[in-house]
Amino acid sequence: MATDQKLQAEEARKCLQEQLKNIGDVEQRELKNEEGHAHLIYLKSMCDPILVNDNLINRFYELNSMELFERFIRSFPSSLEPKDKQELLRNMLRGCVAIFIRDRVLLLDAVLVNAGSVQPASTENVMQGPDDSFTENIEVNLNLIRHRYQTTDLKTEFMTVGRISQTRLIIMYDEMKVDHSVLKELKKRLSELKTDIIQSASEIERHTMHPKLRLFPTLMLTERPDRAVLNISQGKICVLMDSTGYVLVLPAIFNDFFTAMDDKIQLPLIGWFLKAIRYIALFITVMMPSLYVAFTSYNPEILKMQITLLIAGSRATVPYPSSFEVLFMLLAMEFLVEASVRLPKAVSQSATTVGGLILGTAATEAGLVSNVMVILVAAVAITNFVIPITMMSMGIRVTKYLFIVLSTFFGLVGIVLGIVSLIMYLTSLRSFGKPYLKMFAIEWRRKGDPQSG
Amino acid sequence: MKSLKTWYTLLICGSIMMLGGCEFRDIDLRLFVVAIGIDVSETNPDMNRFSFKIAIPTGDPKSGDVKTVLITQESTSIAEAIREAKSKVDKELDFGHCKGVLYGEAYARQDIGKIQDWTVRRRDMQLLMYPAVAIPTAEAVLKVQPATERIAGNAIFLALSEDGTESPFIAKTYSFDLSRRMTETGEDPVMPVIEATGKEILNIDKVALLDKSRVKTILTRDETRLYNLLDQRHLSTNFGIKIEGELFEVNTDRTRSRYKINESKEGAETIDYKVSITAILEEKEDKAPMTPAGLRKIEKEFNKDLTESITKLLEKIQKTGLDPLGFGLRYGGTHWNNDTEMEKWAEIYPRAKFNVHVKMTIKSTGYKR
Question: Any idea where the Spore germination protein N-terminal domain is (chain B) (predicted)?
Fold first, then answer.
C-alpha cells in the first residue's frame, strides 16, 4: 500500500495547529457519534458555512458510519487527499476544509464565492451593444466567455502565479485558431514569473513584457466579454485572472488599441469612419502642441497669414517662449485630469469646472497664455480621450511631451525626426513575437517569405 | 557616487532650459513684411527706393482694425535696405509671409532681373509670391488702404491670387513662374498691373508684357481680357456687342483656347487659334423675346467680332517681338532639330499669320420660367 505517501492524520493535525496559531478565523469542529469521530479545520472567512453544514456536519450525523462518510466525501470532484503538509496548507488557505477522519486527511473545496453581480462596463462604453463586464470572480468570467463561445475548441488551462498571492489564472484560447508559438511563449513567460503578489492583470503585463521599459502597451486589458470573445475567435489568447475584473488579451498590435466594439456594432462605413476619427485624434493629440511650438518659434511662414497674425497678436502679452507656454498649460491639464480621476465623483465635477473654466479664461484674460493656446490644450485633451483603450491613451499622453521637447530644440525638423523615430520604435516592438505596427492585421503571406508569420 | 553624478548631469541639463536663448525669436517678436515695393529714387540715380509694408498683429480678431506700417528706405541694394530698415524697427523682420513684390512702373521699365533673382534666392521668401507692376509707384500702391481689407496687407494678394475676386482682367502670376519665364527661351514673362486710384481703391485690370527683364508694353483693359481668354481656361467674363444698334452682353461659362503652329508651307507659316466659348445671354436692350434662331444670329456676330479683335491683339503682340503665350516654347518642344530650332523660330515668328477661329455657343436665352 502507498500509506507512506499519505499524510498521517495525527502528525498533520499537530503541524496544522502549530501553523495556524494566532489566526483568529480558524474554526475547528469535533464531530462525534457512536461510530467514531471526525475533526474539521477550516478558515471561517474563506469557506461557505452553508456548504460546510449541509455537506459535512449534517451528513456526518445522518450517515452514522465512518466508512460511508469517507466515501461520501471522496465522491465530490473537488475533494482530494493531500500528499504533504505544504499541499494541505496551501489548499486550506485557498478555502478548503481539512477533514481528519480516522487516520486520513481529506480536503474538500468549500470556497466562499463572494461574486458581485455582473456590472455594466465602466471604462469601455459602447453606444448600442452588450453592456456586461467581467466581474472579480474568475468562475463568473469563465461563464461569461463560455456563454458567448460555445465550442469544445475553446480550451482553458489553469495556472497559479505569485508565490504568496497564489493567484489563479485561466488561459483561454480556441485550439483551432490560436498561434501555438504565441501560446508557448506565453506559458514560458508566465512560468518564469517570480513575484510574490500579483493583484491585477496589468501587473502580469509589466512582468512579462520585453523590454521592460516601453511606452506602448503590447498586451490589451479589456473588461468586455464580447471583446474577449471576438479576440479569441480571431485566434488570440485571453488570460483570465482571479480577483480582477479585467482580462488580458494577447498578442495585441497597435491597431487593436484603436478598435472599439462600436466598430462592429455600427454599419461598416460608419465603423471605418469612427476608426479614421480615432487615428486623426491620435495625430492631433500627439502633434498639435509640438506643431504649435514649431510654428510659433521656428517656421511661422507655414501658417496662413491670418493665423500667423492671430497667434502673434494673442501672444503679444505672453512673457515667455511658446514652449514654456505649451508645457505650463499641458501640465495644468494633466493635473486636472489626474485630479478628476482620483477625486470622489461629487468633488471632481467642481474641480474640472474650477480648473477648466476659471483657470483657462482667467489665464487668457490676464495675458499669461494666448487664446490660441487654450483652444489647443482643450483640443489635445479631448482628442486624447477619443482613444478607446486607456492604456494606449496613457502612452500617447507621454509621447506628446517627447515631441514638444524635440520641437523646442529643433523646430519642424525635430518633429519630422520624432515621427520617423516613433515609427521605427513602433515597428521594432513585438507583442509575443508578433510585429506591433502591423496595421489592419492583413497576412501578406507568400511562399518562402521569411518575414511572414 | 554614481547616482550623485547622474543628478548633477540632470541638474546641468535642466539649467540649460532656464537660460534665455539667443537667436531665438518667437512669433510675437517678429514683424511680418507682407509686401515689398521697389521704385527708382528721385534724387539719386544709383539708388532705389524700397518700401516694406509691415503687418502689425492685433490681439482681438473681432475688432477688425487693420494696422500696417510702411517703411521706406533708399539704398543701393535691397540687402542693404533690409539691414537699414531693421534698425528702424524694434523686432526681427520676417519675410516668411511676404507675398508681393511690387515694381514701380519706372523701375519695371528698367530692369527687374536683380530683384527678382533676390526674391527667389533668399531662403525665407516664398516662391508663391505675386509680383506686379505698380502705377504710379510701388510706394503709392502700398500706401493705399482699401476699406474692405480685414487682415493687414491682405487686400492686394486676395485680388492678385484670385482667391478673393475673380476678375477677367487679372493675370495671376507667381514669382516662380516669372523667374522661369525670365530665363526660358520661347516664353516671355507677364505681370499684372496694379493702379492706385484714390486713397482706398486699387485697380488691377491690365497686364504688362516684359521681355526678359523689363516691361515693354502694357496692354489695355480689353486686350488684357482677350489675353486672359487665350491664356487661361474657363475664364469667367462678359463680352458685349452691338447688333443693329442693340446691345447684347453674354456671360461666359466655359472657354477654351487651342492653337496649332502650321508650318506646312515654308515661308507662309500660320498659327491657327481655335477659341470655343460657351455663354449665357445676360443683358439685352431689345425688348422682343429671344428665340434660339435669334441666338444663332448673335453667336455669328460675336464670332466675327471676337475673331477680329483677337487677331488684332495677337498681331500687336507679334509686332513687339514678345511671346507671352509661349508659341516659341511649343515650337521648340515639338521639334527635334535642337541646335537650330530656336533660330528657325525667330525667323518664323515675325512673319507668321494668325488664323483665329472663334466658336461661341450661347446655350441659354437666360429666361427664367
Answer: 25-195
Q: Are residues B203 and B159 part of one domain?
A: yes
Q: Are residues B361 and B349 in the same domain?
A: yes
Of the pLDDT bands very low, low, confident and very high (cuts 50, 70, 90), residue B21 is low
Closest-CA distance, B1 to chain A, in angstroms, reads: 24
- Closest Cα partner for A394 from A271, A273, A217? A217
A37/A31 Cα distance (integer angstroms):
5
> How much is the pLDDT for A102?
76
Q: Which residues pair with B56 in a beta bridge?
A: B67
As beta bridge partners, residue A220 has A249
- The C-alpha angle with vertex B189 and arms to B185 and B190, in degrees rounded to 5, equals 155
Backbone angles phi, psi at A4, to 5 degrees: -65, -25
Distance CA A75, CA A397 (A): 56
Cross-strand bridge partners of residue B209? B190, B217
Query: What is the DSSP-derived secondary structure letter of residue A302?
Result: G
The length of chain B in residues reads: 369
How far apart, in Å, are the Cα atoms of A18 and each of A1, A23, A94? Answer: 29, 11, 18
B237 close to B171: Cβ distance less than 8 angstroms: no
Q: Which residues of B74-91 are buried (b: 16+ CB within 10 A; e: fewer)?
A: ebeebeebbeebbeeeee
Instruction: Give alpha helix (H) positions in A252-368.
Output: 262-265, 268-297, 305-314, 322-342, 345-352, 360-365
Count of domains for chain B: 2
- Is A309 in contact with B55 (Cβ distance < 8 A)? yes
Q: Are residues B100 and B52 in the same domain?
A: yes
DSSP string of B199-221, one letter each residue: SS-EEEEEEEEESSSSEEEE--H
- Has residue A255 got a pLDDT over 50? yes
Distance from CA of B367 to the nearest CA of A (A): 42
d(CA A133, CA A221): 12
Query: Taking residues A124-147, what's their average pLDDT?
Result: 82
The mean pLDDT value of chain B amounts to 86
Domain co-membership, B246 together with B214: no
Tell me the β-bridge partners of A107. Answer: A80, A98
Nearest CB partner across the interface for A313, out of B21, B59, B96 = B59
Beta carbons of A305 and B61 less than 8 Å apart:
no
Q: Burial-class residue A166 by CB neighbours within 10 Å (0-12, 13-18, 19+).
A: middle
Judged by CB atoms within 8 Å, which residues 311-350 of A form the interface with B?
A: 311-318, 321-322
Which residue range(s) make up the domain with B114? 26-218
Indicate if B204 and B251 belong to the same structural domain.
Answer: no
In this prediction, the answer to ipTM > 0.85 reads no
Q: Are residues B194 and B50 located together in one domain of the fold? A: yes
Instruction: Determine, yes or no, domain membership for B2.
Output: no
- What one-character-per-residue DSSP string does B123-166 give? TTS-TT-EEEEEES-HHHHHH---TT--STTHHHHHHHTTSS--
CATH number of the domain to which B328 belongs = 3.30.300.210
Residue B190 — very low, low, confident or very high, per pLDDT cuts 50/70/90? very high
Q: Single out the residue in B187, B218, B249 at which a domain terminates.
A: B218
- Condensed to tens digits (0 to 9), the pLDDT of residues A260-286 reads 888 888 888 988 898 899 999 999 999
> Distance between CA atoms of A85 and A16, rounded to whole angstroms?
8
Tell me if B268 is assigned to some domain: yes
Is the residue at B12 inside a domain? no
- Listed residues B159, B183, B218: the one ending a domain: B218
Task: Identify whether B1 is part of a domain.
Answer: no
Regarding whether B297 and B259 lie in a shared domain, the answer is yes
Please report, as a single letter, which amino acid is at residue A356. G
Tell whether A100 is within 8 A of chain B (Cβ).
Answer: no
H/E element holding B281?
strand B270-284
Same domain flag for B110 and B131: yes
Query: Which amino acid is present at B46?
Result: D
